[in-house]
Amino acid sequence: MVFIVCTAAGLYKSAVLSKRVRQLEAFVGAINLISTEIRYFASPVEDIMQKVNALEEYAQLQVFGICKKNFLKLRDFPKAWMLSLIEAKPQLALNAGDFETLLWFGKLLGTTDLEGQTANCERYGKLLEQRLTHAKEDMLKRGKMYSSLGVLAGVFIIVIFF
Amino acid sequence: MDEQMMAERFNDAAKNLGRIGELLASLPRQLRGKAHEIRLRSGRPVVISLPDCDVFVTVGGAIAYSIRGGLIETSRTDIEDAFRIICSSSVHSHQHEIKNGYITLIGGHRAGICGTAVTQGSEITNIRDISSINLRIARQITGAADKISAVALVDGKLHGTLVFGPPGCGKTTVLRDLARQLSCGTRDGRCRRVAIVDERGEIAATYHGKPQNDLGPSCDVLDGYPKGEGILQAVRSLSPDVIICDEIGGENDARAVIASLNAGVAVIATAHASSLDELFARPHLSELLHSGAFKKGILLYGRENPGKIEAIFEEGELSVYKSSRNDNGIYSLHSGRAV
Fold first, then answer.
1. What per-residue confidence (pLDDT) applies to B333?
2. Alpha-carbon torsion (B195, B201, B206, B209), positive or negative
3. What ipTM was estimated for this complex?
4. What's the CA gap between B228 and B234, in Å, rounded?
5. Do A75 and B93 make contact, defined as CB atoms within 8 angstroms?
6. HSE value, Cβ hemisphere, 13 Å, CA-based, for B206
7. How far is A129 from chain B (nearest CA, A)?
8. What are the residue boundaries of the structural domains of chain A, listed by start?
9. Beta strands B219-223 and B161-165: pairing type?
10. Which are the contacts of A41, defined by CB distance < 8 A and separation ≥ 6?
11. B89–A111 C-beta distance less than 8 A
12. Are B267 and B295 in contact (CB under 8 A)?
Protein backbone atom coordinates (compact mmCIF):
# COMPACT_ATOMS: atom_id res chain seq x y z
CA MET A 1 0.00 0.00 0.00
CA VAL A 2 2.79 2.40 1.00
CA PHE A 3 4.63 1.49 -2.14
CA ILE A 4 1.57 2.20 -4.29
CA VAL A 5 0.91 5.57 -2.62
CA CYS A 6 4.52 6.74 -3.03
CA THR A 7 4.68 5.58 -6.65
CA ALA A 8 1.37 7.28 -7.41
CA ALA A 9 2.60 10.51 -5.81
CA GLY A 10 5.72 10.42 -7.96
CA LEU A 11 3.73 9.70 -11.11
CA TYR A 12 1.26 12.47 -10.25
CA LYS A 13 4.05 15.04 -9.91
CA SER A 14 5.45 13.88 -13.22
CA ALA A 15 2.00 14.09 -14.84
CA VAL A 16 1.58 17.67 -13.60
CA LEU A 17 4.74 18.61 -15.49
CA SER A 18 3.42 17.00 -18.68
CA LYS A 19 0.07 18.68 -18.20
CA ARG A 20 1.75 22.06 -17.87
CA VAL A 21 3.54 21.47 -21.16
CA ARG A 22 0.30 20.50 -22.91
CA GLN A 23 -1.55 23.49 -21.51
CA LEU A 24 1.21 25.94 -22.39
CA GLU A 25 1.22 24.51 -25.92
CA ALA A 26 -2.53 25.08 -26.07
CA PHE A 27 -2.19 28.67 -24.83
CA VAL A 28 0.53 29.39 -27.40
CA GLY A 29 -1.77 28.01 -30.09
CA ALA A 30 -4.69 30.04 -28.76
CA ILE A 31 -2.63 33.25 -28.81
CA ASN A 32 -1.66 32.55 -32.43
CA LEU A 33 -5.33 32.09 -33.26
CA ILE A 34 -6.23 35.30 -31.42
CA SER A 35 -3.54 37.14 -33.35
CA THR A 36 -4.95 35.85 -36.64
CA GLU A 37 -8.50 36.81 -35.66
CA ILE A 38 -7.32 40.31 -34.81
CA ARG A 39 -5.05 40.81 -37.81
CA TYR A 40 -7.39 39.52 -40.50
CA PHE A 41 -10.87 40.06 -39.13
CA ALA A 42 -10.39 42.73 -36.44
CA SER A 43 -12.80 40.59 -34.40
CA PRO A 44 -13.95 41.98 -31.06
CA VAL A 45 -12.70 40.17 -27.96
CA GLU A 46 -16.11 38.66 -27.21
CA ASP A 47 -16.20 36.92 -30.59
CA ILE A 48 -12.59 35.87 -30.27
CA MET A 49 -13.25 34.19 -26.92
CA GLN A 50 -16.20 32.35 -28.43
CA LYS A 51 -14.26 31.20 -31.48
CA VAL A 52 -11.29 30.01 -29.41
CA ASN A 53 -13.58 28.22 -26.98
CA ALA A 54 -15.37 26.51 -29.86
CA LEU A 55 -12.19 24.55 -30.63
CA GLU A 56 -11.85 21.47 -28.48
CA GLU A 57 -8.11 21.77 -28.00
CA TYR A 58 -8.57 25.17 -26.36
CA ALA A 59 -11.97 24.55 -24.76
CA GLN A 60 -10.36 22.09 -22.35
CA LEU A 61 -8.42 25.01 -20.85
CA GLN A 62 -11.84 26.40 -19.79
CA VAL A 63 -10.44 29.95 -19.51
CA PHE A 64 -11.94 31.20 -22.78
CA GLY A 65 -15.45 29.94 -22.13
CA ILE A 66 -15.51 31.34 -18.60
CA CYS A 67 -14.04 34.62 -19.84
CA LYS A 68 -16.81 35.05 -22.39
CA LYS A 69 -19.46 34.50 -19.75
CA ASN A 70 -17.74 36.91 -17.37
CA PHE A 71 -17.37 39.52 -20.10
CA LEU A 72 -21.08 39.43 -20.93
CA LYS A 73 -21.77 40.04 -17.25
CA LEU A 74 -19.09 42.66 -16.50
CA ARG A 75 -18.44 44.28 -19.93
CA ASP A 76 -14.88 44.80 -18.70
CA PHE A 77 -12.49 42.48 -20.50
CA PRO A 78 -9.36 42.75 -18.30
CA LYS A 79 -11.47 42.00 -15.22
CA ALA A 80 -13.34 39.19 -16.97
CA TRP A 81 -10.05 37.64 -18.09
CA MET A 82 -8.49 37.87 -14.64
CA LEU A 83 -11.52 36.25 -13.01
CA SER A 84 -11.61 33.51 -15.60
CA LEU A 85 -7.97 32.64 -14.92
CA ILE A 86 -8.73 32.50 -11.20
CA GLU A 87 -11.84 30.36 -11.77
CA ALA A 88 -10.04 27.96 -14.08
CA LYS A 89 -6.95 27.73 -11.86
CA PRO A 90 -7.88 24.41 -10.19
CA GLN A 91 -7.96 22.77 -13.64
CA LEU A 92 -4.71 24.34 -14.79
CA ALA A 93 -1.23 22.98 -14.12
CA LEU A 94 0.48 26.33 -14.65
CA ASN A 95 2.92 27.97 -12.28
CA ALA A 96 2.80 31.54 -10.94
CA GLY A 97 4.98 32.89 -13.76
CA ASP A 98 2.73 31.36 -16.41
CA PHE A 99 -0.30 32.94 -14.74
CA GLU A 100 1.36 36.33 -14.56
CA THR A 101 2.19 36.20 -18.28
CA LEU A 102 -1.36 35.24 -19.21
CA LEU A 103 -2.80 37.86 -16.89
CA TRP A 104 -0.81 40.64 -18.60
CA PHE A 105 -1.71 39.34 -22.02
CA GLY A 106 -5.41 39.68 -21.17
CA LYS A 107 -4.96 43.06 -19.52
CA LEU A 108 -3.70 44.50 -22.78
CA LEU A 109 -5.97 42.59 -25.15
CA GLY A 110 -8.34 44.93 -26.99
CA THR A 111 -6.91 48.14 -25.54
CA THR A 112 -5.03 49.36 -28.62
CA ASP A 113 -5.24 49.47 -32.40
CA LEU A 114 -4.52 46.55 -34.72
CA GLU A 115 -0.81 47.15 -34.82
CA GLY A 116 -0.59 47.29 -31.04
CA GLN A 117 -2.68 44.15 -30.67
CA THR A 118 -0.62 42.20 -33.16
CA ALA A 119 2.53 43.24 -31.30
CA ASN A 120 0.89 42.28 -28.00
CA CYS A 121 0.02 38.81 -29.27
CA GLU A 122 3.49 38.35 -30.72
CA ARG A 123 5.18 39.46 -27.51
CA TYR A 124 3.13 37.30 -25.17
CA GLY A 125 3.16 34.41 -27.64
CA LYS A 126 6.98 34.50 -27.54
CA LEU A 127 7.07 34.79 -23.76
CA LEU A 128 4.80 31.77 -23.45
CA GLU A 129 6.94 29.86 -25.96
CA GLN A 130 9.98 30.53 -23.79
CA ARG A 131 8.08 29.28 -20.77
CA LEU A 132 7.04 26.25 -22.81
CA THR A 133 10.67 25.48 -23.66
CA HIS A 134 11.56 25.61 -19.96
CA ALA A 135 8.51 23.51 -19.11
CA LYS A 136 9.61 20.86 -21.62
CA GLU A 137 13.12 20.82 -20.16
CA ASP A 138 11.59 20.52 -16.69
CA MET A 139 9.42 17.67 -17.81
CA LEU A 140 12.37 15.77 -19.23
CA LYS A 141 14.62 16.42 -16.26
CA ARG A 142 12.23 16.26 -13.36
CA GLY A 143 9.46 14.09 -14.80
CA LYS A 144 11.53 10.92 -14.78
CA MET A 145 13.08 11.95 -11.51
CA TYR A 146 9.68 12.24 -9.79
CA SER A 147 8.53 8.87 -11.09
CA SER A 148 11.76 7.19 -9.98
CA LEU A 149 11.73 9.00 -6.65
CA GLY A 150 8.18 7.84 -5.99
CA VAL A 151 9.13 4.21 -6.57
CA LEU A 152 12.37 4.54 -4.59
CA ALA A 153 10.66 6.32 -1.70
CA GLY A 154 8.11 3.48 -1.53
CA VAL A 155 10.85 0.86 -1.51
CA PHE A 156 12.87 2.87 1.06
CA ILE A 157 9.96 3.21 3.48
CA ILE A 158 9.14 -0.48 3.21
CA VAL A 159 12.78 -1.47 3.83
CA ILE A 160 13.21 0.89 6.80
CA PHE A 161 9.91 0.46 8.58
CA PHE A 162 8.79 -3.02 7.72
CA MET B 1 -42.22 57.10 -31.72
CA ASP B 2 -43.88 57.21 -28.31
CA GLU B 3 -42.36 58.50 -25.14
CA GLN B 4 -42.17 55.10 -23.48
CA MET B 5 -40.24 53.62 -26.39
CA MET B 6 -37.88 56.60 -26.55
CA ALA B 7 -37.30 56.34 -22.79
CA GLU B 8 -36.38 52.69 -23.26
CA ARG B 9 -34.04 53.61 -26.09
CA PHE B 10 -32.49 56.22 -23.81
CA ASN B 11 -31.80 53.55 -21.17
CA ASP B 12 -30.48 51.20 -23.82
CA ALA B 13 -28.04 53.87 -25.00
CA ALA B 14 -27.13 54.99 -21.47
CA LYS B 15 -26.05 51.43 -20.60
CA ASN B 16 -22.92 52.18 -22.57
CA LEU B 17 -21.90 54.95 -20.20
CA GLY B 18 -21.07 52.85 -17.14
CA ARG B 19 -21.63 54.64 -13.81
CA ILE B 20 -23.13 57.73 -15.44
CA GLY B 21 -25.53 55.57 -17.43
CA GLU B 22 -26.78 53.92 -14.24
CA LEU B 23 -27.48 57.34 -12.73
CA LEU B 24 -29.26 58.57 -15.86
CA ALA B 25 -31.46 55.49 -16.12
CA SER B 26 -33.47 56.67 -13.13
CA LEU B 27 -34.35 60.06 -14.63
CA PRO B 28 -38.04 60.87 -15.17
CA ARG B 29 -39.51 59.06 -18.16
CA GLN B 30 -40.67 62.31 -19.74
CA LEU B 31 -37.10 63.63 -19.86
CA ARG B 32 -35.65 60.36 -21.13
CA GLY B 33 -38.34 60.21 -23.78
CA LYS B 34 -37.41 63.62 -25.15
CA ALA B 35 -33.63 63.33 -25.00
CA HIS B 36 -31.69 63.30 -28.27
CA GLU B 37 -28.17 63.13 -26.95
CA ILE B 38 -26.17 62.54 -23.78
CA ARG B 39 -22.95 64.50 -23.60
CA LEU B 40 -20.06 63.60 -21.34
CA ARG B 41 -17.10 65.95 -21.01
CA SER B 42 -14.16 65.19 -18.79
CA GLY B 43 -14.40 67.18 -15.55
CA ARG B 44 -17.69 68.80 -16.61
CA PRO B 45 -21.34 68.17 -15.76
CA VAL B 46 -23.32 65.65 -17.80
CA VAL B 47 -25.53 67.36 -20.38
CA ILE B 48 -28.71 65.99 -21.90
CA SER B 49 -29.76 67.52 -25.20
CA LEU B 50 -33.48 68.00 -25.64
CA PRO B 51 -35.06 69.26 -28.88
CA ASP B 52 -35.18 72.85 -27.66
CA CYS B 53 -32.41 73.15 -25.08
CA ASP B 54 -29.61 71.43 -23.20
CA VAL B 55 -30.09 70.56 -19.53
CA PHE B 56 -27.92 69.36 -16.67
CA VAL B 57 -28.86 66.65 -14.23
CA THR B 58 -28.43 66.73 -10.45
CA VAL B 59 -27.25 63.77 -8.40
CA GLY B 60 -30.83 63.55 -7.06
CA GLY B 61 -32.19 63.13 -10.60
CA ALA B 62 -33.60 66.65 -11.02
CA ILE B 63 -33.11 68.86 -14.08
CA ALA B 64 -31.05 72.04 -13.92
CA TYR B 65 -31.01 74.66 -16.65
CA SER B 66 -27.82 76.33 -15.45
CA ILE B 67 -24.63 75.40 -13.66
CA ARG B 68 -25.05 74.94 -9.90
CA GLY B 69 -23.91 72.63 -7.14
CA GLY B 70 -24.89 68.96 -6.97
CA LEU B 71 -24.77 68.23 -10.70
CA ILE B 72 -23.61 64.83 -11.98
CA GLU B 73 -20.04 65.38 -13.13
CA THR B 74 -18.02 63.25 -15.50
CA SER B 75 -14.60 62.19 -14.27
CA ARG B 76 -11.75 61.03 -16.45
CA THR B 77 -12.35 57.48 -15.22
CA ASP B 78 -16.01 57.74 -16.26
CA ILE B 79 -14.93 58.70 -19.77
CA GLU B 80 -12.39 55.86 -19.90
CA ASP B 81 -14.95 53.34 -18.64
CA ALA B 82 -17.56 54.56 -21.12
CA PHE B 83 -15.04 54.40 -23.96
CA ARG B 84 -14.10 50.86 -22.99
CA ILE B 85 -17.75 49.77 -22.91
CA ILE B 86 -18.52 51.58 -26.17
CA CYS B 87 -15.62 49.75 -27.84
CA SER B 88 -16.68 46.43 -26.22
CA SER B 89 -13.10 46.30 -24.91
CA SER B 90 -12.00 45.93 -28.53
CA VAL B 91 -10.39 49.15 -29.71
CA HIS B 92 -8.85 47.32 -32.67
CA SER B 93 -12.31 46.39 -33.99
CA HIS B 94 -13.40 50.04 -34.06
CA GLN B 95 -10.15 51.57 -35.29
CA HIS B 96 -11.66 52.95 -38.49
CA GLU B 97 -14.67 54.36 -36.66
CA ILE B 98 -12.54 55.91 -33.93
CA LYS B 99 -10.42 57.56 -36.60
CA ASN B 100 -13.60 59.04 -38.06
CA GLY B 101 -14.73 60.19 -34.63
CA TYR B 102 -17.73 57.98 -33.91
CA ILE B 103 -18.64 54.42 -32.99
CA THR B 104 -21.92 52.69 -33.86
CA LEU B 105 -23.41 50.78 -30.97
CA ILE B 106 -25.83 47.93 -30.67
CA GLY B 107 -29.31 49.41 -31.01
CA GLY B 108 -28.12 51.88 -33.64
CA HIS B 109 -26.95 54.54 -31.18
CA ARG B 110 -23.82 56.46 -32.09
CA ALA B 111 -21.07 57.66 -29.83
CA GLY B 112 -19.17 60.68 -31.12
CA ILE B 113 -15.67 60.76 -29.72
CA CYS B 114 -13.47 63.74 -29.13
CA GLY B 115 -9.90 63.81 -27.86
CA THR B 116 -6.38 64.49 -29.04
CA ALA B 117 -5.69 63.55 -32.64
CA VAL B 118 -2.79 61.26 -33.42
CA THR B 119 -1.64 62.20 -36.88
CA GLN B 120 0.65 60.79 -39.51
CA GLY B 121 1.40 63.46 -42.05
CA SER B 122 -1.91 65.19 -42.58
CA GLU B 123 -4.00 62.12 -41.82
CA ILE B 124 -5.60 61.38 -38.47
CA THR B 125 -4.63 57.84 -37.55
CA ASN B 126 -6.12 57.65 -34.09
CA ILE B 127 -7.60 59.61 -31.21
CA ARG B 128 -6.01 59.48 -27.77
CA ASP B 129 -6.89 61.02 -24.40
CA ILE B 130 -10.62 60.90 -25.04
CA SER B 131 -12.09 64.02 -23.44
CA SER B 132 -15.73 64.02 -24.61
CA ILE B 133 -18.31 61.48 -25.64
CA ASN B 134 -21.52 62.53 -27.34
CA LEU B 135 -24.00 59.70 -27.33
CA ARG B 136 -26.71 60.18 -29.91
CA ILE B 137 -29.79 58.12 -29.16
CA ALA B 138 -31.08 56.23 -32.18
CA ARG B 139 -34.55 57.08 -33.32
CA GLN B 140 -36.36 55.50 -36.18
CA ILE B 141 -39.44 57.38 -37.29
CA THR B 142 -41.75 55.20 -39.32
CA GLY B 143 -43.53 57.31 -41.89
CA ALA B 144 -40.91 60.07 -41.91
CA ALA B 145 -40.44 59.55 -45.64
CA ASP B 146 -44.10 59.27 -46.65
CA LYS B 147 -44.08 62.54 -48.60
CA ILE B 148 -40.62 62.01 -50.02
CA SER B 149 -41.41 58.54 -51.32
CA ALA B 150 -44.40 60.06 -53.13
CA VAL B 151 -41.98 62.43 -54.88
CA ALA B 152 -39.28 59.87 -55.68
CA LEU B 153 -41.64 57.11 -56.78
CA VAL B 154 -44.03 58.21 -59.49
CA ASP B 155 -46.18 55.74 -61.46
CA GLY B 156 -44.05 52.86 -60.26
CA LYS B 157 -40.85 54.49 -61.52
CA LEU B 158 -38.10 55.48 -59.15
CA HIS B 159 -36.37 58.79 -59.84
CA GLY B 160 -32.89 59.79 -58.81
CA THR B 161 -33.51 62.13 -55.89
CA LEU B 162 -31.32 64.44 -53.88
CA VAL B 163 -32.58 65.30 -50.40
CA PHE B 164 -30.84 68.33 -48.99
CA GLY B 165 -31.12 70.64 -46.04
CA PRO B 166 -29.19 72.13 -43.14
CA PRO B 167 -27.66 69.93 -40.39
CA GLY B 168 -30.23 68.39 -38.05
CA CYS B 169 -33.14 68.66 -40.48
CA GLY B 170 -33.70 64.90 -40.51
CA LYS B 171 -32.09 63.92 -43.81
CA THR B 172 -30.75 60.62 -42.52
CA THR B 173 -33.97 59.78 -40.68
CA VAL B 174 -35.91 60.37 -43.88
CA LEU B 175 -33.45 58.33 -45.94
CA ARG B 176 -33.65 55.44 -43.50
CA ASP B 177 -37.43 55.35 -43.64
CA LEU B 178 -37.37 55.71 -47.41
CA ALA B 179 -35.08 52.67 -47.65
CA ARG B 180 -37.49 50.72 -45.47
CA GLN B 181 -40.54 51.80 -47.49
CA LEU B 182 -38.95 50.90 -50.82
CA SER B 183 -37.64 47.61 -49.51
CA CYS B 184 -41.02 46.69 -48.03
CA GLY B 185 -43.00 47.98 -51.01
CA THR B 186 -45.04 50.15 -48.65
CA ARG B 187 -46.13 52.59 -51.33
CA ASP B 188 -47.11 50.40 -54.27
CA GLY B 189 -46.85 46.87 -52.93
CA ARG B 190 -43.70 46.14 -54.92
CA CYS B 191 -40.57 45.32 -52.91
CA ARG B 192 -37.54 46.92 -54.52
CA ARG B 193 -33.96 45.79 -54.27
CA VAL B 194 -32.31 48.53 -52.24
CA ALA B 195 -28.55 48.84 -51.83
CA ILE B 196 -27.48 51.15 -49.03
CA VAL B 197 -23.96 52.50 -49.14
CA ASP B 198 -23.53 53.31 -45.49
CA GLU B 199 -20.06 54.80 -45.22
CA ARG B 200 -20.58 56.25 -41.76
CA GLY B 201 -22.98 53.59 -40.51
CA GLU B 202 -25.70 56.15 -39.89
CA ILE B 203 -28.46 54.70 -42.06
CA ALA B 204 -28.41 51.03 -41.12
CA ALA B 205 -26.31 51.29 -37.94
CA THR B 206 -24.80 47.88 -38.60
CA TYR B 207 -23.40 46.16 -35.54
CA HIS B 208 -21.60 42.83 -35.95
CA GLY B 209 -22.99 42.53 -39.47
CA LYS B 210 -26.62 43.09 -38.50
CA PRO B 211 -28.44 46.34 -39.32
CA GLN B 212 -29.83 47.72 -36.09
CA ASN B 213 -32.50 49.71 -37.89
CA ASP B 214 -35.46 48.15 -39.66
CA LEU B 215 -34.71 48.39 -43.37
CA GLY B 216 -37.19 45.87 -44.66
CA PRO B 217 -36.59 42.55 -46.39
CA SER B 218 -34.85 43.61 -49.59
CA CYS B 219 -32.00 45.80 -48.40
CA ASP B 220 -28.31 45.10 -48.87
CA VAL B 221 -26.05 47.21 -46.71
CA LEU B 222 -22.53 48.07 -47.82
CA ASP B 223 -21.35 49.09 -44.40
CA GLY B 224 -18.26 51.27 -44.08
CA TYR B 225 -17.63 51.40 -47.84
CA PRO B 226 -16.46 54.76 -49.15
CA LYS B 227 -19.48 56.09 -51.07
CA GLY B 228 -17.86 56.16 -54.51
CA GLU B 229 -16.55 52.61 -54.30
CA GLY B 230 -19.69 51.37 -52.60
CA ILE B 231 -21.98 52.70 -55.34
CA LEU B 232 -19.86 51.10 -58.06
CA GLN B 233 -19.67 47.82 -56.18
CA ALA B 234 -23.44 47.81 -55.64
CA VAL B 235 -24.04 48.37 -59.36
CA ARG B 236 -21.57 45.63 -60.27
CA SER B 237 -22.56 42.94 -57.83
CA LEU B 238 -26.01 43.54 -56.37
CA SER B 239 -28.08 44.67 -59.37
CA PRO B 240 -30.20 46.94 -57.20
CA ASP B 241 -33.30 48.90 -58.22
CA VAL B 242 -32.08 51.84 -56.21
CA ILE B 243 -28.94 52.87 -54.38
CA ILE B 244 -29.26 54.96 -51.25
CA CYS B 245 -26.42 56.88 -49.66
CA ASP B 246 -25.90 59.71 -47.24
CA GLU B 247 -24.03 62.99 -47.66
CA ILE B 248 -22.56 62.90 -51.12
CA GLY B 249 -20.35 65.70 -52.35
CA GLY B 250 -16.89 64.43 -53.27
CA GLU B 251 -15.46 63.92 -56.73
CA ASN B 252 -15.53 60.12 -56.45
CA ASP B 253 -19.13 60.23 -55.25
CA ALA B 254 -20.16 62.29 -58.26
CA ARG B 255 -18.40 59.97 -60.69
CA ALA B 256 -19.99 56.92 -59.11
CA VAL B 257 -23.49 58.43 -59.17
CA ILE B 258 -23.09 59.16 -62.88
CA ALA B 259 -21.82 55.62 -63.48
CA SER B 260 -24.84 54.28 -61.62
CA LEU B 261 -27.13 56.46 -63.70
CA ASN B 262 -25.53 55.06 -66.86
CA ALA B 263 -26.21 51.57 -65.54
CA GLY B 264 -29.86 52.45 -65.13
CA VAL B 265 -29.87 52.43 -61.35
CA ALA B 266 -31.48 55.39 -59.59
CA VAL B 267 -29.59 56.97 -56.73
CA ILE B 268 -31.28 58.61 -53.78
CA ALA B 269 -28.84 60.61 -51.72
CA THR B 270 -28.58 63.46 -49.25
CA ALA B 271 -26.36 66.51 -49.15
CA HIS B 272 -25.66 69.25 -46.63
CA ALA B 273 -26.96 72.50 -48.07
CA SER B 274 -29.62 74.82 -46.77
CA SER B 275 -30.43 76.27 -50.18
CA LEU B 276 -29.93 75.63 -53.87
CA ASP B 277 -27.25 78.31 -53.81
CA GLU B 278 -25.25 76.33 -51.28
CA LEU B 279 -25.82 73.19 -53.29
CA PHE B 280 -24.55 74.74 -56.50
CA ALA B 281 -21.62 76.34 -54.69
CA ARG B 282 -20.13 72.87 -54.28
CA PRO B 283 -18.40 72.06 -57.55
CA HIS B 284 -18.92 68.29 -57.62
CA LEU B 285 -22.53 68.54 -56.59
CA SER B 286 -23.10 71.25 -59.16
CA GLU B 287 -21.57 69.02 -61.82
CA LEU B 288 -23.76 66.18 -60.68
CA LEU B 289 -26.92 68.28 -60.80
CA HIS B 290 -26.10 69.49 -64.27
CA SER B 291 -25.55 65.93 -65.41
CA GLY B 292 -29.19 65.14 -64.78
CA ALA B 293 -28.41 62.34 -62.34
CA PHE B 294 -31.11 63.64 -60.05
CA LYS B 295 -34.58 64.13 -61.45
CA LYS B 296 -35.87 65.55 -58.20
CA GLY B 297 -34.45 67.76 -55.49
CA ILE B 298 -36.09 67.97 -52.08
CA LEU B 299 -35.21 70.71 -49.63
CA LEU B 300 -36.01 70.00 -46.01
CA TYR B 301 -36.81 72.56 -43.34
CA GLY B 302 -34.34 73.25 -40.55
CA ARG B 303 -33.78 71.67 -37.17
CA GLU B 304 -37.10 72.96 -35.84
CA ASN B 305 -39.11 70.82 -38.27
CA PRO B 306 -37.13 67.61 -38.85
CA GLY B 307 -38.18 65.68 -41.94
CA LYS B 308 -40.58 68.36 -43.20
CA ILE B 309 -40.33 69.33 -46.88
CA GLU B 310 -39.79 72.98 -47.68
CA ALA B 311 -39.60 72.77 -51.47
CA ILE B 312 -39.37 70.26 -54.30
CA PHE B 313 -37.34 70.92 -57.44
CA GLU B 314 -37.72 69.16 -60.75
CA GLU B 315 -34.86 68.18 -63.04
CA GLY B 316 -34.94 71.30 -65.21
CA GLU B 317 -34.95 73.55 -62.20
CA LEU B 318 -32.06 71.70 -60.67
CA SER B 319 -29.86 71.94 -63.71
CA VAL B 320 -30.56 75.53 -64.76
CA TYR B 321 -30.96 77.03 -61.34
CA LYS B 322 -29.94 80.62 -60.88
CA SER B 323 -30.18 82.14 -57.47
CA SER B 324 -31.78 85.42 -56.69
CA ARG B 325 -31.89 87.43 -53.50
CA ASN B 326 -34.56 89.65 -52.12
CA ASP B 327 -33.82 92.98 -50.46
CA ASN B 328 -33.24 91.35 -47.10
CA GLY B 329 -30.48 89.21 -48.54
CA ILE B 330 -32.56 86.05 -48.13
CA TYR B 331 -32.28 83.56 -50.95
CA SER B 332 -35.59 82.99 -52.57
CA LEU B 333 -36.50 79.52 -53.64
CA HIS B 334 -38.70 80.76 -56.41
CA SER B 335 -37.99 77.83 -58.64
CA GLY B 336 -39.14 75.39 -56.01
CA ARG B 337 -42.66 74.13 -55.73
CA ALA B 338 -43.97 74.95 -52.26
CA VAL B 339 -45.31 72.00 -50.32
1. 38
2. positive
3. 0.77
4. 10
5. no
6. 18
7. 24
8. 20-140
9. unpaired
10. none
11. yes
12. no
Compare B108 and B1 and report the one with higher pLDDT: B108
Q: For A51-92, how does the pLDDT look when each residue is reduced to its tens digit (9 = 90+)?
A: 999 999 898 899 999 999 999 999 899 999 999 999 999 999
Would the CB atoms of A112 and B85 count as touching at under 8 Å? no
Of A44, A76, A78, the CB nearest to B93: A44
Contacts 24+ apart (CB under 8 A), A55-62: A57/A26, A57/A29, A58/A26, A58/A29, A58/A30, A58/A33, A60/A26, A61/A23, A61/A26, A61/A27, A61/A30, A61/A88, A61/A91, A61/A92, A62/A87, A62/A88, A62/A91
> Mean pLDDT across chain A, nearest whole number?
88
Q: Which residues, in sequence order, are bridge partners of residue B271?
A: B164
Average pLDDT over chain B, rounded to an integer: 86
Dihedral of alpha carbons B222, B225, B228, B233, sign? negative
**Cβ atoms of B206 and B215 closer than 8 Å:** no
B251 Cα to chain A: minimum distance (Å):
30
pLDDT for A156 beyond 80: no
- Show residues of chain B in contact with A49, CB under 8 Å: none
Distance of CA A129 to the CA centre of its chain: 11
Strand order in B123-136's β-sheet?
Answer: B63-64, B54-57, B47-49, B37-41, B123-136, B110-120, B102-104
Any CB–CB contact under 8 A between B120 and chain A?
Answer: no
Of B179, B338, B186, B335, give the one whose Cα is nearest residue B269: B179
Nearest CB neighbour to B89, from listed A76, A113, A116: A76
- Hey, which residues 200-219 in chain B have their CB within 8 Å of chain A? 208
Residue A27 has pLDDT above 60, yes or no: yes
**Set of chain B residues whose Cβ sits within 8 Å of the Cβ of A71:** 89
Give the separation between CA A112 and CA B93, rounded to whole angstroms.
10
Between chain A and chain B, the number of residue pairs with CB atoms below 8 A apart is 50
Strands (DSSP E) found in B149-265: 153-154, 157-158, 161-165, 194-198, 206-207, 210-211, 219-223, 242-245
CA distance B73 to B50: 19
Q: Please say whether the beta carbons of B90 and A80 come within 8 A.
A: no
Cβ of B93 and A43 within 8 Å? Answer: yes
Contact A44 B95 (CB under 8 A): no
Choose between B215 and B334: higher pLDDT. Answer: B215
Query: Which pTM was predicted?
Result: 0.74
Q: How confident is the model over B36-74, as pLDDT tens digits? A: 899 999 999 999 998 888 999 998 888 899 998 899 999
Neighbouring CB atoms inside 10 A of B113's CB total 24
